[in-house]
Design a protein that fits this description.
- Chain A: It holds the Pfam family PALP.
- Chain A: Tetramer of two alpha and two beta chains.
- Chain A: It catalyses: (1S,2R)-1-C-(indol-3-yl)glycerol 3-phosphate + L-serine = D-glyceraldehyde 3-phosphate + L-tryptophan + H2O.
- The complex is a heterodimer of chains A (403) and B (267).
- Chain A is an alpha/beta fold and 403 residues long.
- In chain A, the strands form three sheets. In chain A, strands 3-4-14-9-10-13 form a six-stranded mixed β-sheet, with helices on both faces.
- Chain A has two domains: 152 residues, 3-Layer(aba) Sandwich (Rossmann fold); 220 residues, Rossmann fold.
- The longest helix of chain A is centred in the N-terminal third of the chain and has 15 residues.
- In chain B, strand 1, helix 2 and strand 2 form a beta-alpha-beta unit.
- The mean pLDDT of chain B is 95.
- Helix content of chain B is 51%, strand content 14%.
- With 267 residues, chain B is of the alpha/beta class.
- The chains are: A alpha/beta (403), B alpha/beta (267).
- At the A-B interface, strand 2, helix 1, helix 8 and strand 11 of A face helix 3, helix 5 and strand 6 of B.
Chain lengths: 403, 267
C-alpha cells in the first residue's frame, strides 16, 4: 500500500490517469476554463473558504455525527458498523455540501441563474435550497420517469422556488436530464452557472465536487480517533456518480490499512444485464458527459439504459476518479442488488430506528455482508449519505401498500 | 490534393461558397440514406455531412435528437454508416463526405480501426462534437495517417488564445458555430458572425464554414457573403421528419433554391 501514500490527482487538465478530461463542445470550453481559474482563486481565498465553512457549520449543521450501529452489528455478529450521518444534514443528504460550495462560486462569478440535473431529486432539492438561500434563479432538469417516481422531491423543489423541467428524451432518467442541462448551459453560458451534482462531468467538476465533499472524510478522520482511537478497517459508500463515496474516500487514500469499498447498484443482478454497475461489471471505458470513464455501453458505443431501485444510482457512468482508483487498485468496487438494498433498508429501520435512503442502503447491504465475515474487533465505517423519507412511496409501492 | 481541398479551391476560383447539407445516417431508415445523399448532391451540395447517430446527443436540439432516435430504432451502427458511405462512393467519386457525431462510437471502435475503415469507405473528414483540440491530439494523428481531416468547431465564445491549438490540428475546413446554443436554434446574428470570422481569419488559413441557425435561402445568402461555406442541418432533417413521400425530390428542390440564392450573393 506504500505505492498510494502520495496521491496527487488530477493532472492540470483534469486527467485521473486515462480518465476524466474535458470532452465538451467548443462553446463550453471557455466557460470551463473560466470556472477552473475562478475555482483556483476561490480555494486560495481565505474569506471564501471561511464563508464555506461557516455555511457548513451553521446552515448545514456540520459536523455530522458518527454513530455506532451497535444493535445491528450485534445482530449480524461480526465487525462493528459505524455510520457517518450525512442523512442528518440540512436537506437530508450529503448533496448540500457541494451545492453550497458551487453556489458560492456562482455568486463570486456574478452568475444570477443556476441550473442543475437531478435523478432522485436530492441534488435538485439541494440546488433549489442554496438558490433560495443566495437569491439565485434556479432551473432543475429531471427525467420524466424520475419526476413521476419522486414526486415529493419535485414538490419540494417547487416550494423552494425552483422551476422543474421534465425531460422526455432518451431513457427519461438522470443521463437525459444531464444532456438537457448541458443544452441549457450551452445556450445560456454567459448568465448561467451549471451546478453538477456528482463527481463527473468535464474538468474541473470532478475535482471541485470532490473537494467540496471531502469535508465528510476529513471529519471522519478526527471523529474516529475520538470514538475508537484509530481509523476504521474499511470505509464503505454507495457509488452512482460517486460524490458521497469520493468525499469519504479521498481523505483516506493516503492512509495505509484502510480498505475503500464502493458499492454500485446491482439492480436485478449483474448477470441479468439490468443494473447500473459499470465498475463491477467490467464495462469498457468511454466518453460521456464531458469525461472519459468506465461506461455502460453496447458494442457500438451507444449508452445503454440502466436499472436500479434507486433513482440516484441509476446512471450508466461513474466519476472518473473512481475509475482511476479501481485501476490502481486503491479502492474496491462491488455491487448490491435491489433486493439486498431493500433488506438492509429494513434492517436499519428496525434495529437502529434510522430510515436510510435507498442509495445509501446499497452501502449498508455490502457492509452487512462484509461484517459477517470479520471478527468483532474490526470496524467498518459506512457513509450513510442520505435519509430515506423520499423513498417511502417507492418502498410502499414495491410492497403493494397503498399510502 | 484532398477532395475537400479540391472543392474549396475550385469554388474559390469561381468566387462561390460551398453548400454543406447535413442529414443523419439511417434517418428515417437505413435503406434510404444513400439515395438521400445523392439527392443532396443533385440539389447543389458541395460536401455532404453525414450524422452518426448517438444515444446522447448533448449538443443537438430536438430535431436532430429525434433523427438520432429514429436511426437508432433501426440499430444503425458506425460500421453501417461507413458501409453507406462506401455505397455512395460507387456513384459519386468526387463529393467529399464528412462524418459528424460524438466521440464515444469512435472510441468504442478504436481510433485505428475506425480511421482505416473510414478511409477505405471513402470518408474525407471527421467532426467529433465533444472532442475539443485539448483531447484530440491522438485521434487527429491517427486520422491524418489515413489521409482524413479532423474538422473542429469554433464558437462565439472561443477566445483568440484558443485558436492556435485548433489551427494546429484542424484539417479540411473549420466549422464556426454561429450562436451559443444547440443545433436548430433560431437566433442567428449575421453581424456578429461577420466580425468573429474576421478575427478567425487572422489565425486560420483553412476555409471557414458557418452553421447553426441557417434555415432558408435568405439566411444562407447572407451567411455566404461572409463565410466560405454554409452548413444546413436541422432544416433538412425537418424535411426528412415530414415523411418519406417525395423526400429525395424535396431535399433536392430545397437545396437548389438555397444554392441559387447563395450564387446570387454579391461577390
Amino acid at each position: 500500500m506504500n505505492d498510494f501514500l502520495r496521491y496527487d490527482q488530477p493532472d492540470p487538465r483534469g486527467h485521473f490517469g486515462q480518465f476524466g478530461g474535458i470532452y465538451v463542445a467548443e462553446t463550453l470550453m471557455p466557460a470551463l476554463d473560466e470556472l477552473r481559474l475562478e475555482y483556483e482563486k476561490a480555494i486560495n481565498d481565505a474569506d471564501f473558504m471561511a464563508e464555506f465553512r461557516y455555511e457548513l457549520k451553521h446552515y448545514v449543521g456540520r459536523p455530522s455525527p458518527i454513530y455506532h450501529a451497535k444493535r445491528w452489528s450485534e445482530q449480524i455478529g461480526g465487525a462493528q458498523i459505524y455510520l457517518k450521518r450525512e442523512d442528518l444534514n440540512h436537506t437530508g443528504a450529503h448533496k448540500v455540501n457541494n451545492t453550497i460550495g458551487q453556489a458560492l462560486l456562482a455568486r463570486r462569478m456574478g452568475k444570477k441563474r443556476v441550473i442543475a440535473e437531478t435523478g432522485a431529486g436530492q441534488h435538485g432539492v439541494a440546488s433549489a435550497t442554496v438558490a433560495a438561500r443566495y437569491g439565485l434563479e434556479c432551473v432543475v432538469y429531471m427525467g420524466a420517469e424520475d419526476v413521476a417516481r419522486q414526486s415529493p422531491n419535485v414538490f419540494r423543489m417547487k416550494l423552494l422556488g425552483a422551476q422543474v423541467v421534465a425531460v422526455s428524451s432518451g431513457s427519461k432518467t438522470l443521463k437525459d436530464a444531464m444532456n438537457e442541462a448541458m443544452r441549457d448551459w450551452v445556450t445560456n453560458v454567459d448568465s448561467t452557472y451549471y451546478i453538477i451534482g456528482t463527481c463527473a462531468g468535464p474538468h474541473p467538476y470532478p475535482m471541485l465536487v470532490r473537494d467540496f465533499q471531502c469535508v465528510i472524510g476529513e471529519e471522519c478522520k478526527t471523529q474516529m480517533i475520538d470514538l475508537i482511537g484509530r481509523q476504521p478497517d474499511a470505509v464503505v459508500a454507495c457509488v452512482g456518480g460517486g460524490s458521497n463515496a469520493i468525499g469519504i474516500f479521498h481523505p483516506y487514500i493516503e492512509v495505509p490499512g484502510v480498505r475503500l469499498i464502493g458499492v454500485e447498484a446491482g439492480g436485478d443482478g449483474l448477470d441479468t444485464g439490468r443494473h447500473a454497475a459499470p465498475l463491477t461489471a467490467n464495462a469498457k471505458p468511454g466518453v460521456l458527459h464531458g469525461n472519459r470513464t468506465y461506461l455502460m455501453q453496447d458494442a457500438d458505443g451507444q449508452i445503454i439504459e440502466t436499472h436500479s431501485i434507486s433513482a440516484g444510482l441509476d446512471y450508466p457512468g461513474v466519476g472518473p476518479e473512481h475509475s482511476y482508483l479501481k485501476d490502481i487498485e486503491r479502492a474496491e468496487y462491488v455491487a448490491a442488488t435491489d433486493g439486498e438494498a431493500l433488506e438492509a433498508f429494513h434492517d436499519l429501520c428496525r434495529y437502529e430506528g434510522i430510515i436510510p435512503a435507498l442509495e445509501s442502503s446499497h452501502a449498508l447491504a455490502h457492509a452487512k455482508k462484509l461484517a459477517a465475515t470479520l471478527p468483532s474487533d474490526q470496524v467498518i465505517l459506512v457513509n450513510l449519505s442520505g435519509r430515506g423519507d423520499k423513498d417511502i412511496p417507492t418502498i410502499a409501492r414495491m410492497e403493494g401498500i397503498q399510502l | 490534393m484532398s477532395r475537400i481541398q479540391k472543392v474549396f479551391s475550385q469554388l474559390a476560383a469561381q468566387q462561390r461558397q460551398a453548400l454543406i447539407p447535413f442529414i443523419t445516417a439511417g434517418d428515417p431508415r437505413p435503406g434510404l440514406t444513400v439515395e438521400l445523399m445523392h439527392a443532396l448532391v443533385a440539389g447543389g451540395a458541395d460536401i455532404v455531412e453525414l450524422g452518426v447517430p448517438f444515444s446522447d446527443p448533448m449538443a443537438d436540439g430536438p430535431v436532430i435528437q429525434r433523427a438520432s432516435e429514429r436511426a437508432l430504432a433501426h440499430k444503425v451502427t458506425l460500421r453501417q454508416v461507413l458501409a453507406m458511405v462506401a455505397e455512395f462512393r460507387q456513384r459519386d467519386a468526387d463529393t467529399p463526405v464528412v462524418l459528424m457525431g460524438y466521440a464515444n462510437p469512435v472510441e468504442a471502435m478504436g481510433y485505428e480501426a475506425f480511421a482505416s475503415a473510414a478511409a477505405a469507405a471513402g470518408v474525407d473528414g471527421v467532426l467529433t462534437v465533444d472532442l475539443p483540440p485539448e483531447e484530440a491530439e491522438e485521434c487527429t494523428g491517427v486520422l491524418r495517417a489515413h489521409g482524413l481531416d479532423q474538422i473542429f468547431l469554433l464558437a462565439p465564445t472561443t477566445p483568440e488564445s484558443r485558436l492556435k491549438s485548433a489551427a494546429r490540428l484542424a484539417g479540411g475546413y473549420v466549422y464556426y458555430v454561429s450562436l451559443k446554443g444547440v443545433t436548430g436554434a433560431a437566433n442567428l446574428d449575421i453581424d456578429s458572425v461577420a466580425s468573429k470570422l474576421a478575427t478567425l481569419r487572422q489565425h486560420l488559413s483553412l476555409p471557414i464554414g458557418v452553421g447553426f441557425g441557417i434555415r432558408d435561402a435568405e439566411s444562407a445568402r447572407r451567411v455566404a457573403r461572409v463565410a466560405d461555406a454554409v452548413v444546413i442541418g436541422s432544416r433538412l432533417v425537418q424535411e426528412v421528419e415530414a415523411g418519406e413521400e417525395g423526400l429525395a425530390a424535396r431535399l433536392t428542390a430545397f437545396l437548389a433554391e438555397v444554392r441559387a440564392a447563395m450564387d446570387s450573393a454579391d461577390a
